[in-house]
Amino acid sequence: MANHKATKKDVRQAAKRRERNKYYGKTTRNAIRDLKAAKGKEATDELPNVASMIDKLAKRGIIHKNKAANLKSKLAKKVTAAK
Predict the structure, then answer these.
(1) Kind and range of the H or E element at 78?
(2) What pLDDT does 34 receive?
(3) What is the count of structural domains for the chain?
């Protein structure tokens, strides 16, 4: 366990960040799942919101920017194919 004040604070901050990142990641995964299940106009309307969530994950460093690009590309293909 940490002995210095600053290190103890860093451990607390890291725990907060980890929880926050888990929340963002899980929320986005659920949105992706819902988008894949959606059909027609509903899916088309929801795609920009989900793409935005994915971009925010990449911006925050939770996922890599290339993974974000791959996810958005696959979702866009799926939505256009479902029309």
Answers:
(1) helix 65-82
(2) 96
(3) 1
